[in-house]
Amino acid sequence: MLVCGSCNRTKSWACEHCKNWMKVKKITICNGCYWASPSDYQHVAMVEARRADIVWLDKDVKRFDPFRQASQKASESVQDGIKRAVARSLE
User: Fold this and answer.
1) Fewest Cβ atoms nearer than 10 Å: which of 19, 23, 46, 84?
2) Partner residues linked to 33 by β-bridges
């Protein structure tokens, strides 16, 4: 899978520390991992997790900056602010 340098380092660390890589060694487990199939996965390195990598570009940066400021004012990370906003939208 083609990934940026930062994601490649994250993937390498996750795979090298994955229980499947270290002990179990089943290719079917790797096939169900985010790092093998980011559009259709059941786990991330055998951890029940979901990933959504978001990049704000150009005009979207104008939306991100105030959101980051609001998150800081609420003493929360941008990631937690996004999770809270998503949860509210699903209520």
Assistant:
1) 23
2) 43
Residues 47 and 79 in one domain: no
Q: How many CB atoms lie within 10 A of CB 62?
A: 9
Positive or negative: CA dihedral 37, 42, 45, 48? positive
Contacts of residue 71, defined as CB under 8 A and 6 or more positions apart, other chains included, come to 77, 78, 80, 81
Beta-bridged to residue 47, according to DSSP, are: 44
β-pair partners for 44: 47
Residue with tokens 């800081």: 72
Question: 70 and 46, same structural domain?
Answer: no
- Parent domain of 68: 58-89
The backbone torsions φ and ψ at residue 22, rounded to the nearest 5 degrees and listed phi first, read -80, -35
Q: Give tens-digit pLDDT for 46-89.
A: 999 999 888 899 999 999 999 999 999 999 999 999 999 999 99
